[in-house]
Amino acid sequence: MLNIDKNLFSLNLSITQEYCRLQIDKNENDNAKVFRSYNPLIKDKPLFSFKVQLFNSDIEPDLNYCTLTEWIVDPTERENENLVDKLYEQQINFKKKNVALNDKQIHHGDILVSQIDCTVIDGASEVQSLGLIDIYDMPPIDTWFYLTRSKESRLLFAWIPADFKHYANEAVLVNCVNCINWFEKWYPKDFDNITTK
After folding, report:
1. What's the rounded Cα separation, in Å, for the pair 38 and 51?
2. Whole-angstrom distance between the N-terminal and C-terminal Cα of the chain?
3. Does residue 159 lie within any of the structural domains?
4. Cβ–Cβ < 8 Å for 148, 87
């Protein structure tokens, strides 16, 4: 079983679900940008920047481009090994300060897990998800809601709203090292334990 605080998991998930709903309401029609509204400064520059990339073949029918996310620093480099942990804490605290929970709001979607220490930087998941997942196989920062460890890696949990599940699933399907997948699929016992009221 994973080391998960069920109450904190549930609270952070609820806050993140509502925060993501608010981002969707802003009508940002770009997978790379919609859930990267939290963009802190690192060395006086935004952590994330974006560029449109054209491809020689279609990613989806009649679509041969997408927006890619560039980090100002590489989170996989040794000198940045604690960066994701710090970003996780900063973004969850930001959401807690800026989101009012609405118990009547129903959120549809699923939980994605990324083994952030096991990535291979090939860009396949980023392109196939039309920029939703980044080159480091991480979901967008606004969707992060829990961080823990397994024997192999830190596990970053992300809320993927229903309208974006197709894109995340495309990333899962093409990921060559299987470092991203759905919580329910990878850890069914933990999923049942945590999602059971």
Report:
1. 17
2. 18
3. yes
4. no
**In which domain, by residue range, is 110 found?**
6-195
Q: Whole-model pTM above 0.85? A: yes
Residue 174's pLDDT band (cuts 50, 70, 90)? very high
The backbone torsions φ and ψ at residue 45, rounded to the nearest 5 degrees and listed phi first, read -130, 150
Is residue 29 one of the residues assigned to a domain? yes
Total domain count for the chain?
A: 1
CA distance 37 to 141: 8
| Whole-Å CA distances, 138 to 23, 104, 132, 159, 192 | 18, 30, 9, 12, 24
C-alpha span between 58 and 39 (Å, rounded) = 30
pLDDT of 70 > 90? The answer is yes
Could you tell me if residue 166 is inside a domain? yes
Tokens of 56: 């020689």
Under 8 Å between Cβ of 35 and 25: no
